[in-house]
Design goal:
About 50% of the residues lie in helices and about 10% in strands. It is of the alpha+beta class. The chain has three domains: about 110 residues; about 120 residues, Serine Threonine Protein Phosphatase 5, Tetratricopeptide repeat (Alpha Horseshoe); about 160 residues, Aminopeptidase (3-Layer(aba) Sandwich). The strands form two sheets. The chain has a six-stranded antiparallel sheet with strand order 6-4-3-2-1-10. Helix 3 packs across helix 5, helix 8 packs antiparallel against helix 9 and helix 11 crosses helix 12.
Length: about 400
């Protein structure tokens, strides 16, 4: 008879394991089996209430990431509040990654807020990173609506969030609070009561939210703070156009994007970008995701170069958010990014691929001076732009600030 671990290995998907390893960089690849969440939840449903499940829940610590995920999904199926919290108290100290922490959401906790708030405070007082992160997420999920109290904001703000994954949860909480309890949360931003990294990330996420009004977004943008050490990305250049500002994202920004992205394809793409950055830190800007923002700080899209190829070319990829398409931002951004790329004297050409039916993207490339090569790449028709014979280094699109 197979035990729980054996059953997990029957569900193994090596490619998905490789993908997961990029999303959870602090978990060694050898400790990741590669099992998708729906399969884990199905297994939890099959095991729930069995002697095998009870024995598994008593076996801590686990070896594999998916064992931790399964443990959390089994706790979710506990209906009694007291038993659920006891199981959480036993498990939370062993959580060592954001993915397991953020996947646990027992329904029974939402049915007894009077008891939950006391347990949340107890978890907030913990010295353990992911126990604190779980506590803040419970405050965000359960206490920003009818049972909201202004003092809960103070509790979260009081948490010292030096660790990246705790800081990002704190920012996520305040961004959600700005969407749901704007008047109560705003003073924490106006008075600078959060660390600069947390402060700015909370503003960024709030500005991206559809639940925050345009007037509120405009005001929040004026409250951004300058980080004391500036940008943390190696080779962190910036290029500007008449309307846009483009810059390669720092590691913490890319990790936050990966953590928040729901589309698996995009998560994989962003993870590959970050992996390239970490493997080639001296060429960070050539592998990083580049932010495309309006001059007022509004994000409109992103792009990347996919690294420097051995044949002295670089492939560019880009995307503009649906809300901002049709305004010429793609053409403006691609033109500026290509101009930046040709500041590298060794670069011979910039290439691009588009889906066969994506005529809008093809028009963008043509406007930027690309021509079809007649070749078909992985994504579709290939385009290329060779190095200009003369580069006007004083053109606004070529201005680089470091």
């Amino acid at each position: 008879m197979m035990n729980v671990r054996d059953r997990l290995f029957t569900l193994r998907d090596e490619a998905y394991g490789d993908f997961t390893a990029k999303l959870v960089p602090n978990v060694p690849r050898e400790n990741i089996i590669g099992v998708r969440a729906p399969a884990l939840r199905k297994l939890a449903k099959e095991l729930s209430g069995s002697a095998e499940a009870a024995a598994f829940l008593q076996t801590l610590p686990h070896t594999y990431l998916e064992e931790n995920h399964l443990h959390g999904f089994l706790i979710e199926r506990v209906r009694d509040y007291g038993q659920c919290v006891a199981a959480l108290d036993a498990f939370l100290p062993f959580i060592d990654n954001w993915a397991t922490c953020d996947s646990i959401g027992p329904a029974c906790l939402g049915r007894d807020h009077a008891r939950l708030i006391g347990d949340v405070q107890r978890w907030l007082d913990s010295e353990r990173l992911y126990t604190k992160r779980f506590a803040i997420r419970m405050l965000m999920n359960h206490f920003l609506d009818a049972d909201f109290r202004p003092e809960y904001l103070a509790r979260v703000a009081a948490v010292r969030a030096e660790e990246y994954y705790l800081s990002m949860m704190q920012a996520w909480y305040f961004a959600t609070a700005l969407a749901k309890q704007y008047e109560a949360a705003l003073p924490y931003i106006e008075q600078g009561r959060l660390e600069p990294r947390t402060h700015n990330k909370a503003i960024q996420k709030a500005v991206e939210s559809r639940r925050v009004s345009e007037a509120q977004k405009a005001y929040l943008k004026t409250l951004r703070r300058k980080a004391p050490t500036g940008r943390t990305s190696p080779e962190a250049g910036m290029t500007e156009t008449e309307r846009l500002r483009l810059y390669p994202a720092a590691r913490e920004e890319m990790e936050a994007v990966i953590a928040a992205e729901e589309d698996e394809g995009l998560r994989a793409a962003y993870s590959q970008m970050l992996e390239g950055c970490l493997q080639h830190p001296d060429q960070w800007a050539w592998y990083a995701m580049w932010r495309i923002e309006r001059k007022d700080g509004t994000p409109v899209g992103d792009l990347c170069f996919k690294g420097l190829a051995p044949d002295d070319t670089a492939e560019i990829g880009y995307g503009i958010l649906d809300t901002y398409q049709g305004r010429g931002y793609a053409t403006e951004a691609v033109s500026a990014a290509v101009a930046w790329a040709f500041r590298n004297p060794a670069l011979r050409a910039v290439t691009a691929e588009t889906a066969p039916g994506n005529t809008a993207s093809q028009r963008v490339l043509e406007k930027c001076g690309f021509t079809a090569t007649g070749e078909i790449g992985e994504e579709g028709p290939r385009f290329a732009k060779s190095r200009p014979a003369l580069i006007e280094s004083d053109s606004p699109a070529y201005i680089i600030e470091t």
